[in-house]
Amino acid sequence: MQEFSVVIITFNSKNFISPCLDSIFTQGHQFQVVVVDNGSKDGTAGLIKKNYPQVTLIENKDNLGACKARNQGIDVSRGEWILCLDCDIILEKDFIEKMIAAVKNSTDSIGMVQPKILRYDKKSIYSCGIYLSAIRRFYDIGKGEFDKGQFDKMGHIFGACSAAALYKRDMLEEIKGQSGYFNERFFFLVEDVDLSWRAQKKGWKTLFSPRAVCYHAGNSSGSSRKLRQYLCFRNRLLSISKNENLIGKIGLLPVFIVYDLPRLLFLLLRC
């Protein structure tokens, strides 16, 4: 078996981290688990130290953002594959087994594996991966739909949702930039779109593995809607500016005028 590492980021996550870690340590496989705490004030770090001494814990004094925290975790991880999880993810009991099977059967060009992420109700879909449209809008595939097996076919997709995604170390090292594996300028949100886009430009592919299932609460950090809207808008433009070619950028000017400019004005009026 290829070696796996698990990297989890936490921020005031005391109510979520135990179910997450418990679901990992009952998988029946031995692997390194790294938790990066972004300056929690609710006792998250203390709980981990007391109840999970086998975890490698990195404690930041302040909230450095999801991108920086993931990069810190990846830097100290040892695995050939790194499973990045949000703290409010709970894995199905055979999750790792199914992800290992997907890796074993994958080609050398696979750099990411996306599981099926459902919400805590175990019925509605949170994400089956990232879709990027021709006008560079990005969506979580299936988000909000009831899971009726409509996304149960394994296949290639644009990219992986970082709430729960498996990354190949070789890919991460190849696409790493001055701002890290995940671009730290993004702080959080859209960073997984950017990483997937950079990887695709280098010839790496993302595999959707629907048999591997996990459950996600979403926005466990409690960030405000206004902040999330701002970061989504800003980081989408950052991702386009970094990854789109000149002809593509010119073609997107009408989209910016019709869609993005009114959205920008709306966000400025709400500030």
Concise synopsis of the structure shown:
The protein has 271 residues and is an alpha/beta fold. The protein has helices spanning 14-25, 44-51, 66-76, 95-104, 169-175, 191-201, 225-243, 246-251, 253-270; strands at 4-10, 32-38, 56-60, 81-86, 89-91, 110-119, 125-127, 130-132, 138-140, 155-157, 164-168, 205-216.
What does this structure look like?
This protein is an alpha/beta fold. It has one domain (4-270): Spore Coat Polysaccharide Biosynthesis Protein SpsA, Chain A (Alpha-Beta Complex). Helices cover 38% and strands 25% of the residues. The chain has nine helices and twelve strands. It has helices at 14-25, 44-51, 66-76, 95-104, 169-175, 191-201, 225-243, 246-251, 253-270; strands at 4-10, 32-38, 56-60, 81-86, 89-91, 110-119, 125-127, 130-132, 138-140, 155-157, 164-168, 205-216. The strands form two sheets. Strands 1, 2, 3, 4, 5, 6, 7, 10, 11 and 12 form a ten-stranded mixed beta sheet that branches. Strand 6 (110-119) and strand 7 form a beta hairpin. Helix 1 (14-25) runs parallel beside helix 2 (44-51), helix 6 (191-201) packs parallel to helix 7 (225-243) and helix 7 (225-243) packs antiparallel against helix 9. The chain is globular, with a radius of gyration of 18 Å. The termini are far apart.
* Shape verdict: globular
CATH architect. name: Alpha-Beta Complex
Count the domains: 1
List unreliable stretches of 5+ residues.
Answer: none
Quaternary status of these chains?
single chain
CATH superfamily name?
Answer: Spore Coat Polysaccharide Biosynthesis Protein SpsA, Chain A
- Separate helix tally: 9
* Rounded average pLDDT: 92
Helix content: 25-40%
